[in-house]
Amino acid sequence: MIDAYAPLGSWYFPTIAFLFGSCIGSFLNVCVSRWPANLSVVKPRSRCPHCGHEITWYENIPLVSWLALRAKCSGCKAPISAVYPLLELTVGLIWVACVLQFGPTFTAIRVAVLASVLLGIMITDATDYVIPDGFTVFGFFFALVAAAVGTMLGETLPFATLYDSIMGACVGAGAIAIVGWLGELALKKEAMGFGDVTLMAMVGAYLGPGRTLLTIFIGAFLGAVGFLAIVYPIAWLRARKSGTEFAPPLVPFGVFLAPAAMIALLWGSRMMNWYAHDMLGL
Question: I need a surface site. Which of 27, 61, 115, 157 has the fewest CB within 10 A?
Answer without folding.
Answer: 157
